Please model this.
Amino acid sequence: MMYNPQKIEQKWQKIWEKEKLVEAVDFSKKSKFYALVEFPYPSGEGLHVGHAFTFTLMDIFARKKRMEGKNVLYPMGWDAFGLPTENYALKTGIHPKVVTQESTDRFKEQMKRLAFDYNWNREVNTTDPNYYKWTQWIFEKLFKHGLAYKKEMDINWCPSCKIGLANEEVVDGRCERCGTKATKKKLSQWLLKITAYADRLADELDLVDFPESVIASQRSWIGRSEGIEISFPLSETERVIPVFTTRPDTLFGTSFFVLAPEHPQLKELIKPEHKKEVEKYIKEAKEKMELERIAETREKTGVFTGSYILNPLSGEKIPIFVADFVVMTYGTGAIMGVPGHDQRDWEFAKKHNLEIREVISGGNIKKEAYPGEGKLVNSGKYNGLFFQEAKEKIYEDLKEKGLARKRIEYSIRDWIFSRQHYWGEPIPMIFCQNCAQKGITFWDTEEGKNFKSLFKISEGLAGWFPVPENQLPVELPEVEKYEPTGTGKSPLAAIKDFVKTKCPFCGSEALRETDTMPNWAGSSWYFLRYCDPKNDHSLADYKKLQYWMPVDIYLGGAEHTTLHLLYSRFWHKFLNDIGVAPGKEPYLKRKTHGLVLGENGHKMSKSRGNVITPEDVKDLGMDALRIYLMFLGPYNGTFPWSTTGIKGVRRFLERFWGWALSQIERKNKESEKEIKILVNRLIKEVGEDIDNFKFNTAVAKLMKFLNEVKGKRISKNDLVNVLKVLAPFAPYITEELWEKLREEFSIHKQSWPEYDSELIKEEKIILIIQINGKVRDKIGVEAGISEKKAKETALSSLKIQKRIKGEKIKKIIFVPEKLINIVL
RNA sequence: GCCGCGGUGGCGGAACUGGUUUACGCACAGCACUCAAAAUGCUGUGGACGCAAGUCCAUGUGGGUUCAAAUCCCACCCGCGGCACCA
Model:
């Protein structure tokens, strides 16, 4: 009988649909396992083999866990808010809701064809009002707890998409999506105080099993830096200007002082004779900023203000400059210039002929700044101290004078949460002009007064009220035009019925917020919703969350290590703080998957025309596709697609099919011992490979096994075990052969076979005989051979005798079960 | 510049708790089947020299540790990813 994968696929897909295989059962006594793979954005083009790669990895892993008897939660859903859908709607006039429905239907059908065995009864969709009701609910909680605030600010703006961008969405100064150069625009934006969780987001990475690279990326994104704030007294007034430094030990090396062009105290320090020059510089710096001053040459420009500041310990008079290499967004917007021990300061000093003073010995400061360690010199009473010690001492002395305090700086910024688009969750807030004028905030209302906020409430929120919870969700209204207005307002602003509402506090006319949330919002908590996807009363039942959470293994893309992963950890920690989600961390273990490139080695994209979809290889069969994708290489690698490669896998399945059928016909009673050993080893090794995410070598072992047993007889029992081991990889062919064996439906409800550990013990080993570490002979010997016997065997080898003739044996090294090395 | 990961045949990759380098597959070559081709099967395939048995050399480069290094250490080169006037 010919192997006809398409026929088999159609047959079993129908049966699996009707007769459910395995469900995830809430509160089952079996031990739970939560296997999660990042849910996709259902693009109009459908699923390609890159998606298939990722999903197959987890599908095999989850199937194995089920076979091991675990109660596996293995869900799928749709991260469906987003620009492409909106853009498509813009072009065609079809409602994004309709487009999304079509796309998700298509994805789902493709996933079913690929035999991804998800718990479809737990499907979630971020664009479903019953889902985003809770996304909005979380936002309101963030607001009430002081973690959401509004701020007039310069935001990154994409002139092409006409949308505000988060810092994370600007890559090399360009819009992450369309590549247009980002500009700045002043808009009033909602921000989330992720900075309040910066320490925990960094520290609690110790609690989870994430790849080293992910931890490093997250820590560097958070960018914690511990230092002190030193106040420098101005020479002419009583006032001080603080700086942030991690190197107080270099204080005596300060030969200049720099303020950022935007520094609030700058104006009063400009002396009349420098006014023209300084104001010109500030103006230029501002313009430069708009043209991205980062990308420009890093020449250390700057001008003298005419004013001086005093070294807080030595009293030395220090000139104050303004320079744009100092930025207002980090530290205090002012620095102490220590050219001897900071490269940027060194360059600035060179350019402006300022003194470069050595205060830490060990480098050659004539050539370059020395940022390393050493003893203090030229530092008065601190001379001779090691820099670490000096840090402490100087800090103590400054603190005594009230001129220093410990300070931690982060490079992470608060999360800009407003988007000026239609296809996103409406931010559920109402602005009341009447209350705003009276300075009334949510926390002045009856509800607000009784509300215990976990964090300090930001100012400037007068007149802003969350939509009462019983009115959630704030549904997206129908609109005629999806175009962003380009004025900085979302298309929702044009819908009067939507915008006009009543103030929940005073009842007078009020306006709804018309911005929507970024597409990171819905994905920041979806893993919780899978645990209880249809709950109307809460985002998920706490008991169910306690049962299923945390996610045991989370597979996702490298592009999400600093954004999605950080945002969702932040939300989870917050939800834990307010008692609606258990556990400090949502994900126990994170794995980063690789990428399948087009056949030409470039990233698959419609515009490059190198996209391969499952449909393109349907003749070869989905089992072949699954196995081929696993066989490409390690799960985290990047590989070009190869059509000849997948044909090789198809040949393997073809041979397997033929071999298995002939075994079924023959009805062998017993396998030879040698075959039994091979089967038992296969069970062990493939099982371990799956556990270790080594799917490529698991496939290699299956292929090797077939090569070794081809043409040989195997008992039914052994064949059954081989099928079970192959089943997670190739669900269709194994189900079909299972049926031919007249076994009870379905192979996918079976448990993972056990192996006989006695049987697979090696009886014979190949003893490697080396001379001076080079392999000179290999002899088959019994396992567990003694050192004495091994030596005898080695020395009796003719090849060895020839080589050691006339030489003196210095020593012989024996490694049990492995080798013997004769040193001459 | 800093942080993380990597560099093994013509290609994707195995082997990394130090102990047979190149598993498995692709590609290629020869043979069989065929009028022929495709498909399939069998055999071969790291490099150099050799008719051969065989010998020597090979895991980015250069050193080191060790009886023994793809694996550990040092320096350097290259590639990928992240961060970056961060004070």
Observations:
- The mean pLDDT of chain A is 91.
